[in-house]
Design goal:
By secondary structure, the chain is α+β, with helices and mostly antiparallel strands. The protein is built from 10 helices and 17 strands. It has a 5-stranded mixed beta sheet, covered by helices on one side. Strands 11-10-9-12-13 form a 5-stranded mixed beta sheet, with helices on one face. A 4-stranded antiparallel beta sheet has the order 14-15-17-16. Strand 2 and strand 3 form a beta hairpin. Helix 7 runs parallel beside helix 8. The two termini are 65 Å apart. Keywords: Cell inner membrane, Cell membrane, Membrane, Protein transport, Transmembrane, Transmembrane helix, Transport. InterPro entries: ATPase_NBD, GspL_cyto_dom, GspL_pp_dom, T2SS_protein-GspL. It is a single-pass membrane protein. It is found in: Cell inner membrane.
Length: 402
Amino acid sequence: MSTLIVSLPLETASSATEWAFAVTPDGRTLADHGKSPAALLPQPRGAGAEVVALVPVQALAWHRVNLPKGVAPATPRMRTALEGLLEERLLDETEAVHFALQPGARAGEPVWVGVCDRAWLRHQLQLLETAGRHANRIVPEFAPEGAPALAVIGDAEQPVVVSSSQEGVISLPLSPVALGLLPNLPEDAPRLAEPAVAGTAEQVLQQKLTLQQAPQRWVAAARTRWDLAQFDFASSAQSRRLKKIATGWAEVLHTAAWRPARWAAIALVAINLVGLNAWAWKERASLSAKREAVRRTLTETFPQVKVVVDAPVQMEREVAALRQQTGVASARDLDAVLGALATALPQGRVPATLEFNGTDLRAGGLALSPAEFRGTAATLKTLGYAASAEGSTMVVAAEDTR
């Protein structure tokens, strides 16, 4: 799951601008970093690969607001509500800025809102897209979350000190005057500095600082849940879902952390396949045994049957023939069918014609009304016969012949 992280330049970019970037193969380790024109930036590869645009701390301002109730966060109405809430706090017109809510923002609760220049952000992203590096996410370099921390970044000519915590993000030029504006940090709070400004930072802050390269910080920023691509910068809901699914599956299929789960899934599938095959074999054996028992019963009861094609049908025929030979009455006999029909017909109704083919009795000329036919059919059913109509003719047969 390769990720390309591109730091957006503070100045308005052009085709000649060199973009600072970092590449991570797994979202945690830094594989490569440097500067390059947009068209020559590395192309992330593999399933779930993505491009993350990083907004520098100097380009982003943070405001704490209480979201209005009854307005969903990811809607144009929320954008309008934010314009009203922040209008007096902004130096620019609300139409000229882009708003982004913190992850998990809910209506009626206090949240952090990131604000940056909309035209600047759109221009930078369009240049990346023109170069074939469409940004899947937009993340802040520093965000108001986590434990308090301090970092000194930039170059030796213009170092910047940044304090970040859940209480906000403050960035100031590194100078003795700025120290009084920084919040007090706990003793165990991380204090970091880029190599180019570490010496100057230790002299000004009078503290020991841990070295951290900017690309390492960018990789950590890309791991957060922040995504500033909201409102008119938001991707379609479908593309976001597909991206999350692809990223999740890529992690499941390729990362070492999921290897035990992959082997367990393979073992589970194999066990189920073996079990299904064993169950199917057992069911086939049981069915074959039952069929053989029926065939054996037929040939033992009626030895004259030499070839068994459909044992139940052949046995039924042999039983019927045996009844005729011995004179045993059957529900299929003509007198039995006639007796049932005489019992079921309305009083005074006599068929004009009768036709019997050995199984079905066709009684014509009854001229029954629909209600009378239904009543006759119901009575016949209780006697074990089925009745159907073919024009003015009633067809009656024993139900076991249907």
